[in-house]
Design goal:
Elements lengths: L7 E2 L6 H5 L27 E2 H20 L7 H24 L8 H28 L17 H11 L1 H6 L3 H12 L11 H6 L1 H9 L2 H7 L2 H21 L23 H22 L15 H17 L11 H18 L2 H11 L11 H19 L2 H9 L5
Parallel strand pairs: 1-2
Helix pairs in contact: 2-3, 2-13, 2-14, 3-9, 3-11, 3-12, 4-5, 4-13, 7-9, 7-12, 11-12, 13-14
Length: 410
C-alpha cells in the first residue's frame, strides 16, 4: 500500500506515461545525462506528480495519527468517533494509490527484482525487528514468524501478494466486482487461517484492484472544486454518524481481519458489511483526495519516503506503549490527546525525510545486485559497448567514419 525525486512539479491532469514511472515507493532513479557518443539519448525522466506525493504523505500522517489514538480512544467518545472515521478510509486510500502505481507490474525480471528488494526484504527486516522490540523493550518474549505478520507489516505481505496477482487482474473481464466478491466471501469464511494475514489481504483486495483500473481522468474528477466543496458536508455527516455508531458497532469490522462469525454475528452479515464498508470507504477516500493539493508544497518531497515513515513510526509508538508512556493521565485529556496527535504527525514527518532514507535505504530499498543474475539483453548491450570501446581504442577514426556515413548530408 519510496528516493526523493530531483524535481517536482504540479500537474492537474497527470499523463499515463508519467504516472507509470512512479512506483509505490514514489521514486524513479535518475538517468545519467551523458551518453556515449553516437548513441541516441534516452528521453528525459518524467517529473513527479506533486498530487500523488502529497496524497501519500497526508495518508501516512493519518495512519500514524490513527495508531497513536489507539491506546487513548477508550476514554473519549469524540476521539473514538474520529478513530472510526479515520480507519474507514485511511488505509483504503493508501491501498488505492498503491494499486494505481502497480499498473505497470508485468512479472518481468526487473519488476520482480524491485518487488523483492522493495517489499520482501523490508518485510523480513521489520517482521524481525518488531518481535525483538517486544522481547527486549516490552519484556514479553515474542516469537519471530515470517508467516504471521506482526503489527503493521501485514501491508508489505499483502502488497507482495497483490502485485504478484496483478497480471491476472489485467486479464479478467470484470476485475473489481470479482475482487469484491472474493472479499465478501472472505468475510464469511472463518477457516481461512491467519498465515500471511490472508483474511486482511483478501478483504482489502478490492481497493488494490480498483487502483489498478483507475486512470488519470478519474483522479481529475475528484480534484474539481465542486468535489472539494461537497466533501465538507460528507465528512461532517460521517463524523456525526461515527459518533452515533461508537457504542453500537464493533470496530473490528474496520480492520478487515476477522470473519463475521469471529465477530459474533451470523455469516451473512459479513458480506453485507463488506459491501457497505467498501462503498463508505470509497466515498471518504474520494473526499480525502479532493482536498489533497495538486501543487508542490513543503511536504511534497516527503511523499517519496512514506514507506520509511510507515515502517519506522510503529517502532516509536510500540516503544512508548511498552514503556507505559500512554498511561500518563495528562495524555487522556483533550490537550494531551491533541499533543499526542501533533507528536505522531511530527514524528512520521521526520521519518520520511532524506537523512532517514539515506540511513535506512540498505534495509528498506537495498539494491542487492549481488543476489540477481544480470539480464541477457543487458549483458549483450554491455558486450557491444565494450567492443565499440575496443574498436575506438584501436582506430580512433572509426567513430568519425561511422558518424559521417550515418549523416544523411554525406
Amino acid at each position: 500500500m519510496f528516493h526523493a525525486a530531483s524535481s517536482l512539479a504540479p500537474s492537474p491532469r497527470p499523463s499515463q506515461n508519467q504516472n507509470d514511472r512512479q512506483d509505490r515507493s514514489g521514486d524513479e532513479p535518475g538517468r545519467p545525462a551523458d551518453r556515449p557518443a553516437g548513441r541516441p539519448s534516452a528521453p528525459p525522466a518524467a517529473k513527479r506528480d506533486a498530487f500523488f506525493d502529497n496524497a501519500k504523505y497526508l495518508a501516512i500522517v493519518l495512519v500514524a495519527m490513527g495508531h497513536a489514538w489507539e491506546p487513548l480512544k477508550g476514554d473519549s467518545r469524540v476521539l473514538t468517533a474520529a478513530y472510526v472515521l479515520l480507519y474507514t478510509f485511511h488505509m483504503p486510500a493508501f491501498i488505492v494509490i498503491s494499486g494505481y502505481f502497480s499498473r505497470g507490474f508485468d512479472a518481468s525480471p526487473g519488476k520482480l527484482k524491485r518487488l523483492v528488494t522493495g517489499v520482501v526484504v523490508p518485510y523480513v527486516v521489520f517482521e524481525t525487528a518488531y518481535p525483538l522490540l517486544k522481547t527486549y523493550v516490552g519484556g514479553a518474549p515474542q516469537d519471530i514468524s515470517l508467516l504471521d505478520p506482526y503489527y503493521l507489516t501485514w501491508f508489505l505481505c499483502a502488497l507482495f501478494i497483490w502485485r504478484l496477482t496483478t497480471p491476472l487482474w489485467k486479464l479478467v473481464r470484470h476485475p473489481v466486482p470479482l475482487a469484491l466478491g472474493i472479499a465478501m466471501l472472505a468475510s464469511a469464511t472463518p477457516g481461512i487461517g491467519g498465515d500471511l494475514d490472508l483474511p486482511r489481504v483478501l478483504q482489502f483486495l478490492p481497493f488494490f484492484v480498483l487502483g489498478l483500473n483507475l486512470r488519470p481522468e478519474h483522479f481529475a474528477l475528484v480534484r474539481r472544486r465542486a468535489a472539494r466543496i461537497a466533501a465538507v458536508p460528507v465528512f461532517a455527516f460521517a463524523l456525526v454518524f461515527a459518533w452515533w455508531a461508537v457504542p453500537r458497532m464493533n470496530s473490528g469490522w474496520l480492520y478487515h481481519r476477522n470473519s463475521a462469525q469471529e465477530l459474533g454475528v451470523p455469516w451473512w452479515v459479513g458480506p453485507v458489511m463488506q459491501l457497505a464498508l467498501f462503498g463508505c470507504s470509497l466515498l471518504l477516500t474520494a473526499c480525502f483526495l479532493s482536498w489533497v493539493p495538486g501543487r508542490a508544497t513543503w511536504f511534497t518531497t516527503l511523499g517519496a519516503g512514506t514507506l520509511y515513515g510507515y515502517l519506522t513510526h510503529g517502532l516509536l509508538l510500540k516503544t512508548a506503549d511498552y514503556r507505559g508512556w500512554f498511561d500518563h493521565p495528562a495524555l487522556h485529556r483533550p490537550l494531551g490527546e491533541i499533543a499526542v496527535t501533533v507528536a505522531a504527525a511530527a514524528a512520521v514527518t521526520a521519518l520520511c525525510t532524506s537523512p532517514v532514507r539515506r540511513v535506512l535505504r540498505c534495509v528498506v530499498e537495498p539494491r542487492m545486485e549481488w543476489a540477481f543474475k544480470r539480464d541477457a539483453a543487458e549483458l549483450a548491450r554491455g558486450r557491444e559497448r565494450e567492443k565499440e570501446k575496443d574498436a575506438q581504442r584501436q582506430d580512433p577514426g572509426t567513430k568519425d567514419a561511422r558518424t559521417r556515413s550515418a549523416d544523411p548530408a554525406v
